[in-house]
Design goal:
By secondary structure, the protein is of the alpha+beta class. The chain has 2 domains: about 260 residues, no CATH class; about 130 residues, 2-Layer Sandwich (Conserved hypothetical protein from pyrococcus furiosus pfu- 392566-001, domain 2), CATH 3.30.1760. The chain is about 35% helix and about 25% strand. The strands form 5 sheets. Strands 1, 4, 5, 6, 8, 9, 10, 11 and 12 form a 9-stranded mixed sheet that branches. A hairpin with a 2-residue loop joins strand 4 and strand 5. Helix 3 packs parallel to helix 4 and helix 4 packs across helix 7. The longest helix has 16 residues.
Amino acid sequence: MAKIFPFCGLRYNQDKVKNIDKVFSPPYDIISEQEQKALYKQHPCNVVRLVLGKTSFKDNPRNNRYLRAAGFLNEWIKERTLLFDAKPCIYLYIQEYKVEGEKKRRLGFIARMRLDNKDRCLPHEHTLVKPKEDRMLLMRSTAANLSPIFSFFLDAKKEAERILSPFSKSKPLLDIKDKDKVRHCFWKIEDEKTQGKIAKLMKPKQVFIADGHHRYEVALAYQDEMLTLGGKSGKFNYIMIYFTPFSEDSLTVLPTHRMVKAAGTVADKIKRLEKYFKIVPVKTLPGLLKLQNRQTVFSLGMFYKNRFWLLKIKNTRLLAYLMRKAPKHWRKLDVAVLNNIIFGHIFKFTTAQREDNVGYTRNPRFAAACVKRGEFAVAFFLNPTKAGQVKKTALSKKRMPQKSTYFYPKPLTGLVINKF
């Protein structure tokens, strides 16, 4: 089902670029304005200039962040800051990290996949219009996959590990740590036999999208656009993807918390929560997070009017009734209950209102701070979705609400670029 190919990746030239660890960035959609500024200062060739360039009030159709990104990309290629690998490669990528003190390791690889079947990559989350418009403008300007889609596949026999692990014994092209102390090791595999083994392994596989739903849909739309314009065999028929074997242990999913702006009378809406939830005050954020994780009935956390609260569902039968139209395997997910009951039934948000009034963060302290500063009216703290629930949702052809998952750690942006 998945047609995988090596490619001549575009990578930073380590003979020219000093302080190589300073040129990479997180994925564009988790970069805050503050972090964007820091990445700009970190290195004059930081990849943030390509994936999330600064905007200006002077921007116009002839000079904007998308055209500037294309300018940087072309300039860096011309100056040999970025070089194409001479031979087609599959890129081995290993990340080592800790979660709550426990050491973890995730092995994967980056390759191109042919876009000849819209169901080849199964999604699990809904997408929004504005982010897709943004990424389409960037793709049209740069004609490149600037960062890989993050995907996983089922590999019960650990064949990918068996094929790829021998290469991890050699010296990596890159061995760096990011600000979160995640170790990133990166190799290129030019050996055609190994590439063939990986292609054969992946051929019958179903691929699941972990992160990158918007970029995947944009790649399909861009392909349609180019085919309409008369293109046939162009590189736009392929997309760069990071593939990792499915494992509950190495596919770490963190919660994404919600912050809600003052849409209408928030106080009235919070009051209506009492109909469905027992609302218990909690002194501290750490105490709240521990409490909500230990509950045997559905619960989530809330920060409102400078106080932390635990929301415990009062009536499980009522919960089941209100969630009856949702797929069975995610009716009890925090994010599904939050969206259906709180945002849908109580706040009565339309899709557009949700897009305009809800902010996202994986940092609960940041969420509370935003409410304290008055940027948002209330914050909701969620438990993480499990990787197995993501797989089940994708297989059912259903989708979770946007930002239901936060896979950790993210693949670095800038390790390799797929230029069309």
